[in-house]
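Let's practice the habit of predicting before peeking. Look at the sequence and jot down your guess about where helices and strands might fall. Then scroll down.
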Amino acid sequence: MSEIVNIKTIQALQRLAGAPPSEHPLFAITRLEDIPQLPEGYPTKMSYDFYSVGLKRNLNGYVKYGRQSYDFQEGLLGFSAPGQVVAYERDVTIGSTGWMLFFEAEMLSGHTLATSIHRFGFFNYEVNEALHLSKKEEEAIESIFENIYAEYHQPIDRYSKSVVLSNFELLLTYANRFYGRQFITRNDVNTSLLQRFDKEIRHWFKEESLIDTGIPAVTDLARALNVSANYLSDALKTLTGKSTKEHIHFHVIEKAKQKLLATNKSIAEVAYELGFEYPQYFSRLFKEKTGLTPKEFRE
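Done guessing? Here is the structure:
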């Protein structure tokens, strides 16, 4: 198994790839067709300490994030956040087209993106959850990459950062919009996801007592469905109006209602059987979701 190489800066990545140094200290953009064959010593598994956005077509092989592999023969838009592990096949860029954009978190300093970028959950999606673009959508994204590329090659002045970050924000906003469309229109994929989610969460709550298993976390359900936690929550929010956590809370409250009405167990016993370590946490959640305390509901 090859070792994971941590790449701390964009300049370090460019040196490894044998590319010219970045024209800006905090971001870099390149066309995939301009990337030569990767050198022999180029690592095939790495993690970045910076963000990346890629519009990729006709990759010669596979890209792997975590345990998931994806063949980018069609045009897809993918994102990665600092710390994600990315693996490539050696000759992946040969014959490919598209764009790669890298930027440091420091690039966002002083801009609204510095505090809002965490809201773009797709930076933590898996590669198999990449954004499938229609022709029209791809043209819109391509034009933004072109704008960033043109600015990248301009001399830096007082407006450079503002222009680049405005295009960054537009790119991410379009991606949000297009992901919303994808959740709705990829019916076969997302109907299957909803069905599997419903089956998995009902299976989790079918036990009379959750003492041993506990209430499922969002990550538990995402792992069981082989998707990222962010992707699952965003898909459910778009398709059902509720996030994964809201679905979990719904099942907790329904289970609690059954126990409160069908048994004479104390509130503390009900809370314990539902997987709550502290009864007051259960009572607080129940009141928040129903408007009544467990005792008031039982009465």
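How did you do? The mean pLDDT is 80.
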